[in-house]
Specification:
The protein folds into two domains: 77 residues, no CATH class; 221 residues, Up-down Bundle (Methane Monooxygenase Hydroxylase, Chain G, domain 1). β2 and β3 form a beta hairpin. It is built from 13 helices and three strands; from the N terminus they run αααααβββαααααααα. α2 crosses α3, α2 packs parallel to α10 and α4 packs antiparallel against α5. It has a three-stranded antiparallel beta sheet with strand order 1-2-3, covered by helices on one side. With 303 residues, the protein is mainly α. Keywords: Actin-binding, ATP-binding, Cell projection, Cytoplasm, Cytoskeleton, Motor protein, Myosin, Nucleotide-binding, Repeat. It comes from Himantopus himantopus.
Amino acid sequence: SPSVSCCCYVCADARDSIAKVAYGRVFRWIVCKINELLAEKVDPEVELSEIGILDIFGFENFAVNRFEQLCINLANEQLQHFFNHHIFQLEQAAYKEEELPWETITFKNNEPILKLLLAKPLGLLSLLDEQSAFPQATDKTFVDKLNSSFKGNSHFEPGRGRVLGFSIIHYAGKVQYSAGGFLEKNRDTLPANVRGLFINSVTPLLSFSLQDIAHQPLAVLWLAGLLIFLCPGQHSLMMLMERMYSANPHFVRCIKPNSQKEPGVVDSQVVLLQLRYNGLLETIRIRRDGFSWRPSFQEFAER
């Protein structure tokens, strides 16, 4: 009967919510425990310098791309913007300050893409939250809202044919996203009664891991899992970016030699495409034309 079928779907959603949250929380506990063991003799009142390593190849474009891929590609858009800021904007500002003869190097600025995704109240994620708040909304009404809101935007393309989806022209290329499940994943929360069972569990790890969880969408918690190494505690992409902008960054850009993941094979077109969309060709030029070796005045005088 319809009522039994509906009940099965609710149970399945609750089961999936439990699995996702339990996995994420236990993973975070393992990382925190490792940190405690490695730093057990450190005076907690002494402020230590930090070296953070963000290891992420990043950009994803599969045969079918869902909400998870959008989250990952959003993180990569932010990281690419961070890279542009430090390599191009700050570098050229330093050259002008040193009064070097300089012609500004143009680069591919991805701010319009970030605005499309993050702007309030008419960015993609804001519209997703808006639709998620309407009980009668569906993935189709969400896509219809995107199509009407972003009509004419050069970084957005409506889905073609009968496919329920849309395409985003990212800094690294166009990705077609399947919109099925977007609202469900954005609404997905751990039921209060299930959270209570976890907290009152006789297993200390389960009880501890759920103490500070609020009714957050699992999409946020999932994205937090992506950034867990750099942002323990209250996780968010914005917190990660704030920490990175306050740091002194060094970049190691990895290039994938081929799309088949085969050893000993270098596809020159695949490599060239990555060099272009990552901005590495412009990076080489700006460092070559400026000054890549920067000794202090004292070091220079001694030599």
